[in-house]
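lol ok so funny story. i was supposed to be doing the assay writeup but got distracted and ended up predicting the structure for this chain instead. priorities right. anyway since i did it might as well share w the group, maybe its usefull for someone
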Amino acid sequence: MVLRLAAGLAATLALCVAGLSPAHAAESVASYVVAGSIAPDGSLAVKATITFDGAAPATLTQRFATSMDAPGDLRYTYQLSDIKVTAAGAALAPQVTSDGGYTTVSIPTQGVTGPVELSYVAKGAALLEETGETTVSWRLLQGLSLPVRQFTAEVTVPTMIKLVDCQAGPPATPGACTFYGGGTHDHPNPFFSDGPRGAGEVVNIVVRFPAGTVASNQDVRQLWTFGRAFSVTPWTLGTALALALLGGLAVWFLHRRFGRDAVAGREPVRIAEFHPVGPGEAEFKVLDGVRPGQVGTVVDERVDPVDVTATLLDLAVRGHLRITELPRTNPHAATDWTFTRQAGGDELAGYEKTLLDAVAPDHGEPVHVSGLGPAVAAVIGVVQSQLYDDVVARGWFARRPDQTRNTWGRLGWIALGAAVVITILVAAFSTFGLVGLALVLVALGVLWVAQEMPARTAQGAALVNGLGLLSAQLHGQPTDQMPKGREIAELSEIVPYAVVLGGADRWLAALVAADDDDIPDGTDLSWYHAPDDWHLSDLPASLGNFITTVQGTLFSR
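and the output, tada:
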């Protein structure tokens, strides 16, 4: 009996304690009822009555999107004002924060009994259509921290409407609302109904008015995107193509006007010829003292390592220099050469003397090809400058080719810089980025054509024609018609020109054929000495190695 009494008292006490526990906070909103009003100026006044499904939570939060991106790279911005919250007639103090395109309203609802009323005015939702009509589009329900079982809304309008629509669901993929209507004589005001909706889901209403009845207050701006900046439309593409075409024609005209060679005379200027000296014999005769380095500069309008190498060979053949191939220290060692200064017998041009002093100084240690880079580093620019001056002094160019290239190159870089700036500006503030790209292409065309702007004089053009004839002879003249007893000297004189104009292999082969014994030929050539076991048959390989090594050294300096 006592045990049963104690058990009953314990059960009663437990029930009392349970009765004293606080009520559970609502996990949803029973109803979200909106009374809205659209003013003639396009502003939307909203009053939302929120009824909880149980006791009010400590805080209710609603997050409003105040910016929204639309097709066409557009961004619409909205403003919320006059945000007020009341409960049972008493004002509540909501916390309103704005961050990253959202306005968040946090309502302290701890202990609130009954519905909560949230009111605000939205501006920017009245959008102007291309037809002149005004469409008010706004998410009456959005960003609520609790799910909603039932949503209803009615919006008062200042005039008859042309269209009413409603979408509800997740913000990214809303569907049709459960029920909506209005715009009739019986029900002029649009009304909407939907639910249930999850936390954060939306109900977006759309109401369209005839043109001139409700003002648009949209705040819209065009977003910058790469695709929009470089839009391909008939207008932008046509303008860009027209500018590219006109710019290309301008570049072509500039080249024709300033970069084309003068018209040569009827007769090409011959710089060398194979002069007959007897039946089946012809000697190579240089005319007017045109040297291989000058030939290369006139042909390609620039002084390059080929011209310097040909000048070294020419100085050696003419007796101002001897090239000596050194014995290898072991079979795997790289070949090296030295330069020895010789007396020579003719006068040297300025660039020839400068180069000769660098590779074979009157006093000091012989220069090795392996050390050619440091030896000529200080003077190679002088050699190039003197050679450019020389071709101008000879009347083949009116201006130094390097200066002409530099002048037009600077113009090209200036044009390119301006085109890039213009491209950035038009791409940043318009859809005509393609026009800027067209200007960039034109500027690149100026840079490219700058390398072709050096123009030969009529005398220079005639010389080029003559060099074409000499090149054809070097490739087609029989190599076995040198005067008897003078084959090696005559063939040696041809080699520097063949290095520049082509055909060197066949003339070196002719030098090999001139060797009629098995005796080593290390000193048979006055201009090229080699180790004691060296034969003329080794000359093509030795000279090819020498040319490649010298050019590589000059390129890598």
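The first strand starts at residue 29 and ends at 38. Residues 218 and 494 are 85 Å apart (CA to CA).
back to the writeup now i swear
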